[in-house]
Amino acid sequence: MASPTFTVATWNINSVRLRIDQVERFLTEQAPDVLCLQEIKTAEALFPHDMFERLGYTHRAVHGQKGYHGVATVSRLPLREVSRHDWQANREARHVGVEVLGAGGGVILENVYIPAGGDIPDAQANPKFGQKLAFLERMTRWAEAVDRPTLIVGDFNIAPLDCDVYDHKALLKVVSHTPQEVAALKALGDAHGWVDLGRKHIPAPERNYSWWSYRSYWREKDQGRRLDHMWASPALAAQSVSHTIVEETRRWEQPSDHVPLMTGFAL
DNA sequence: ATGGTGGGTAGCCCA
Questions:
Q1: Domains of chain A (ranges plus CATH)?
Q2: Is the pTM of the predicted complex or chain greater than 0.90?
Q3: Chain B: bases < 7 Å from a protein Cβ
Q4: Residues around strand B, C-beta < 7 Å
Q5: How many whole angstroms separate alpha carbon A55 and alpha carbon A51?
Q6: Whose CB has fewer CB within 10 Å in chain A, the N or C terminal residue?
């Protein structure tokens, strides 16, 4: 197998300021070329740039928001910010798109935080659920026009396959695994022939979780879900040579409820 | 398994 020449990681960090030491440890131990963070929960003005600068991640695109949401893409390779989509049309900071320059150049990297969608899987009773579906619908329209090698990564807040949750039947009415969300995500996937790298490298039905609730009862029973994803356009997907779920971070002290994913490409 | 545990932030919203 070819060794990677370009590595990309994604991690819902659930407050980058609270967990800046964990981000440093991850970057030191795993050394991806690019890291896409979601739920940074800070305005850009308070983003902890110093640590990233010190470790050589001198290129950053931060789409922040005070208190909620927020995404950031940090890189050792030069990059150029190209977009900040608002697929929910409500000004929440849930996307930043960059073009990677230099080695690994030419790849478009879309860092996205799809809305969680609230608790009740009914758009009438729960507007957040409808907003999540609308987000996916607008993103699907966008995806149809993508015409460059592109990688979409982030917290999708949907576990699409039966084997992406600990109990398919029990979760059919739980937001993140409802047939409606799964269908909406499939439409997005079909819009560009995106390749689900998580399942390219760890084929179904193998265990492949990226999130465990903070609620202890579920965590102790390994009741995880695969909510985080890396999707590549077809030609780029053919160049992926490695894929890792860095599950150990979930056992660090005061962890994020999500763990990082990392993919290596031989470009 | 029908509760519970974490964030940001300053009375709740969000996950």
A1: 6-265 (3.60.10.10)
A2: yes
A3: 1, 3-9, 13-15
A4: A 14-15, 17-18, 39, 41-43, 66-69, 115-116, 118, 128, 157, 167, 170, 213-218, 221, 223, 254
A5: 6
A6: N
